């Protein structure tokens, strides 16, 4: 029989080497975050999958530090535990109220306080109200209080169908709100004094702050107009264009720009400007410094 050891007491039998090694307590819960975005719904049933599809679009655009994305269509009841430690939670799901497809509802926070009890809960029909009610039950006082729900009225929910045009348009509107009110504030500011570097081997270097704030998806379109090089952010690699590659652990990025510049020989550090009207980075090619 193994003798009992009082908590904190030295146990010479536990370590023949003689040194006392303590086991720190482990916290296996999800890490906290500033914003948690959860997309609920069935990805295989047309407009019912708008939540998970929206999460995938956000992922392609780039996830800022402090944000987490969760596909609630496959995570099931794990969504509730993902909420632990989140300062703000946003849930997106489809609705079926009989309204015009693409209608957007933003559920006020005070209406989330008294949800119906968990009834008929199943991992294959896990909806936004289930997620919140289960989180209240499972997390108790640790359940986030700042929860926002966006519902998009579905049209067709046939098996294997794509999102309908009205629901796609509504999804883009919700994405714009999420970027403006939730994700945008987490992105580092671009700053007014911007500079980039052209290397001798045909690469363009962007520092981590500029890349994260202006090109969060790491995909860009590049073109020369007159004496300026323009970089346009794309939504993700599926949009084509060029990829910003990770250059170092600090997050600086590099872009192979040699073919875009064609016969122009451009090297050194250049000033750059963010053009709000074009939503692009403009780099005068004659402004080396």
TrEMBL record:
Residues 1-25 are annotated as: Disordered. Keywords: Aspartyl protease, Hydrolase, Protease. GO terms for molecular function: aspartic-type endopeptidase activity; enzyme activator activity. Residues 14-25 have a biased composition (Polar residues). Gene3D superfamilies: HybD-like (3.40.50.1450). Pfam families: HycI (PF01750). GO terms for biological process: protein processing. PANTHER family: HYDROGENASE 1 MATURATION PROTEASE, HYDROGENASE 2 MATURATION PROTEASE. Belongs to the peptidase A31 family. This is Peptidase M52.
